Amino acid sequence: MTRSNLYITLSSGQQIVCVADSTSGPEQGYIVEEVFTPLLNLNNSHKEIKLLKKHCTMDEKRANANYRYYINLITKEVTMFEEHFNYTTEKFRKGKEITERYTRYLEKLNNQDNENQIDTELKALNTIAEMVLKFGQLHVLNIREEDLKQLDMVRKCLEKVIRDNGYRMNYDENSNNHLIKI
Question: Which of 16, 62, 84, 100 could be disulfide-bonded to 93 (CB atoms 3.0-4.6 Å)?
């Protein structure tokens, strides 16, 4: 278990100190995904304190902390350092800056999000293709001329979304794949 002393400037400007007692190395994910990311998205000091109380021990520091984080909720900046404690003088000392570990983990998360987005886009395009095919069933039904024009415009817009994403429609009813890569 890694501990970290957190030096936080709330969105109101109030400065607080607290300790994250569990899995606070950025590569472990918990502190970044469960504490920092939600905290950085809040703009209300009361909600910020409530979130911190859920994950941290307030108004304390630990001599056995491995890391020191500075979190500024006004500027939305996070910096990370090694944390050292001198047992003779009973003083904390900020060590080497290691913020790149935090930023590398954020980049890894962003890359995973982009990979997931590609899968989602393809699923969305398949759903849109199914919708376009459903429009073909409308020609046998009684529909006002004005409504037919609007429905045709919608179908063309859906087909444009598919084309803009590098695919075209496959209207073969015997095929399970309704998209063809351009």
Answer: 84
